[in-house]
Design brief:
Blueprint lengths: L10 H34 L2 H17 L1 H10 L2 H24 L5 H29 L5 H29 L2 H21 L7 E4 L9 H13 L2 H31 L4 H25 L5 H21 L5 H29 L5 H30 L3 H18 L2 H4 L10 E4 L6
Antiparallel strand pairs: 1-2
Helix pairs in contact: 1-2, 1-5, 1-6, 1-7, 2-5, 2-13, 3-5, 3-8, 3-13, 4-5, 4-7, 5-12, 5-13, 6-10, 6-12, 9-13, 9-14, 10-12, 11-12, 11-14
Length: about 425
């Protein structure tokens, strides 16, 4: 089992300076996403155009994830974050120029979305893998709760702020806001160090450098040879497969089943976002049960009940569905936060970039697959069908997990691979 590294007494100052910059960047990215989607909607009114834009934004997360994770584990994570943020800023700046000169075309927006998403595919595992080296293990769940709270705040605040901005200023000015927030994210990384993990290699190979392909293969084998980690990965992927179509089907549920309009649809998003913020704050203060996996599984159990309430709500009981949405939002951080903290705790520090990116890629790949299955199934058996399916299968997943020792004991059954450490100093 890997021992925790020594952290300076002022670890919080360094971490939250970097984290705060990333929070600004996340908000700026959400504004840009809203502005670009609104521009495509207003200029084309085409569902096909919006679908293609979504595909361009999603593909890098699926295709580049494992490659990005290997790159992160082989190089300075601090430098990866700087380059990713800088690339996103430059692409956004170029797109702002095209808007300013009136030369922007739809394909320009597709390319910009693709490159911005590719930057995120490198940035996310670099930041996630660095967190476990900057934060004491006992606080990782609380930090995960803060991250979930931040996502909830952005999901609530960014759309109305973005709507206001696109009404009072040209699109290029909204894009420039994101350029500014990216610079805010880069600034602390220029002056603060980000620790590098101790590189570990198989006994007998110390002193021999490995190729990119070897490191990629090592990360994959590390996951599949550890039953507990593989089980959690499969569980997370299945849950994402089930949950993703719900957001796409929700407008039809609100309008078709409940007979409501845009106001009520917006209310469901707001209730979910408020629940997510409160859930993130709760996790941040509480920290979860001693065993992180238990916290997540209990969260999935309640999460399933919330989805079930949405599915069983009669047409005359829209508030019951809102209650279900609040439960789902509140428990989302309780489910996701401890899993993230668990990976940061038990996965070898020099493997975290690869493991996290493989998980993100698998989860992202489930999104279009879930939509392809959920759409026809809902058309055939009714719009509430997928909510029932999600609730029941989530319950089945969590009940199975409770009886799988490899999953329940993952915090104490670390991979038995024998390794010899190869020192790697912190990169300034």
């Amino acid at each position: 089992m890997e021992t925790s590294h020594d952290l300076p007494k002022n670890w919080a100052l360094r971490f939250f300076a970097i984290w705060g910059g990333q929070a600004f960047s996340l908000f700026g990215s959400a504004l840009v996403q809203f502005a670009l989607v609104w521009h495509l909607t207003r200029e084309t009114g085409s569902a096909t155009v919006l679908a293609i834009a979504t595909l361009f934004a999603l593909l890098p997360q699926i295709v580049l994830g494992p490659i990005a994770g290997t790159f992160v584990d082989r190089n300075s994570r601090r430098l990866v974050m700087i380059l990713a943020d800088a690339t996103i800023a430059l692409v956004t700046l170029a797109l702002a120029y095209l808007f300013f000169t009136g030369q922007v075309e739809i394909w320009h927006i597709y390319v910009a979305m693709f490159i911005r998403s590719a930057g995120g595919a490198f940035h996310h595992p670099a930041m996630a893998a660095s967190t476990s080296l900057m934060v004491p293990q006992e606080h990782l769940s609380r930090v995960a709760g803060l991250n979930q709270t931040l996502q909830g705040l952005v999901s609530i605040i960014a759309p109305p702020v973005g709507a206001l901005f696109v009404e009072v200023m040209p699109t290029q000015n909204v894009l420039l806001i994101d350029v500014g927030t990216a610079l805010v994210a880069i600034l602390p990384l220029l002056f603060l160090s980000v620790p590098q993990p101790v590189r570990q290699v198989v006994e007998g190979q110390a002193g021999h450098s490995t190729s990119f392909a070897q490191d990629f293969k090592e990360g994959f084998l590390y996951m599949v040879s550890w039953p507990g980690l593989l089980g959690i990965s499969i569980m997370a992927t299945l849950i994402n497969f089930l949950f993703t179509p719900m957001s796409a089907l929700l407008p039809l549920l609100v309008t078709g089943h409940f007979g409501k309009g845009a106001l009520e649809l917006g209310l469901t998003d707001s209730v979910f976002g408020i629940g997510m913020i409160l859930g993130g704050v709760t996790l941040g203060v509480w920290g979860g049960f001693k065993r992180k996996i238990v916290t997540s599984l209990v969260g999935i159990l309640g999460f399933s009940i919330g989805v079930g309430l949405i599915g069983i709500a009669p047409a005359a009981l829209f508030p019951l569905a809102l209650g279900g949405m609040f439960i789902v939002g509140f428990l989302s951080p309780i489910v996701n936060g401890p899993i993230h903290a668990l990976l940061q705790t038990v996965v070898r520090k020099d493997m975290q970039g690869r493991v996290i990116s493989i998980l993100v890629s698998a989860a992202s790949a489930m999104m279009p697959l879930g939509l392809l299955i959920a759409g026809p199934l809902s058309d055939m058996f009714g719009i509430r069908t997928w909510f029932w399916v999600t609730a029941l299968l989530n319950l089945a997943i969590v009940m199975v997990a409770f009886f799988v020792p490899a999953i329940m004991n993952i915090e104490s059954n670390h991979s038995g691979q024998q390794v010899a450490p190869v020192a790697s100093p912190a990169i300034k």
